[in-house]
Design a protein that fits this description.
- It contains 9 helices and 6 strands.
- The chain is of the alpha/beta class and about 210 residues long.
- Strands 3-2-1-4-5-6 form a 6-stranded parallel sheet, with helices on both faces.
- It is globular and about 50 Å long.
- The N and C termini lie far apart (about 50 Å).
């Protein structure tokens, strides 16, 4: 098998900012993969977003203009109930056959993987790419360490040999941008011009959910 992987990068994207996009783009290059940004509808592990589903989808469409490697997938916004990753990956596996799928997840979130719904089954349907900051390590629970140790690969090309089941660490360049801080700036009537994709400023209505609070 030598098929370009499909990587999935989820989040609330409330709002999507340059930190999200730079990490997704770098992961796409490291894996030689296409990446889908997948906003969560009802995230099980965090408070509900301020912007609603159509508003966050509109922000992502504006942010992803004029390139094709990062694309938007709105299936979790269209699904009722909590956005469980296992359900999404199972759907994608049914759609893409044996194409390698890679779930992109930050190192801190990865350390909490045992709290996720049916977490061990994730490896049945996808690889996992852990987005790590160079020189920074998150403490991993013993049960997770035992699960992933035999799955670890060092070379991204190795992921193409299997549709799922492996884990790779991807050292990415973090941009210290906070969605919380961006929301505060917008609520105060300020203009976080170089924290957000320029496409979000083309239409004033796109950022209205945060300015009207």
């Amino acid at each position: 098998m030598n098929v370009r992987p499909l990587a999935i990068f989820g989040g609330t994207f409330d709002p999507v900012h340059l930190g999200h996009l730079s990490v997704a783009w770098e992961a796409a290059e490291l894996l030689d993969a296409d990446v889908r940004l997948m906003p969560a509808s009802v995230p099980p592990h965090r408070p509900a977003p301020i912007a609603n589903a159509p508003q966050r989808a509109a922000m992502l469409r504006a942010a992803l203009q004029e390139q094709s490697r990062l694309t938007l997938d709105t299936r979790e916004l269209e699904r009722s109930g909590p956005s469980y990753t296992i359900d999404t990956l199972t759907e994608l596996r049914a759609e893409h056959g044996d194409r390698p799928l890679v779930l992109l997840i930050g190192a801190d979130a990865f350390a909490g993987l045992p709290t996720w719904h049916r977490w061990r089954e994730l490896f049945d349907v996808a690889h996992i790419g852990v987005l790590s900051r160079p020189g920074v390590e998150a403490a991993v629970p013993v049960e997770l360490e035992a699960e992933v140790a035999p799955r670890l690969v060092a070379d991204a090309a190795a992921l193409r040999a299997w549709p799922a089941g492996k884990l790779i660490e991807l050292a990415v360049t973090p941009l210290e941008i906070s969605a919380t801080r961006i929301r505060e700036l917008l609520a105060a009537g300020r203009d976080p011009r170089y924290l957000l994709p320029c496409g979000l400023f083309d239409d004033p209505a796109v950022l209205a959910p945060y300015r009207q609070r």
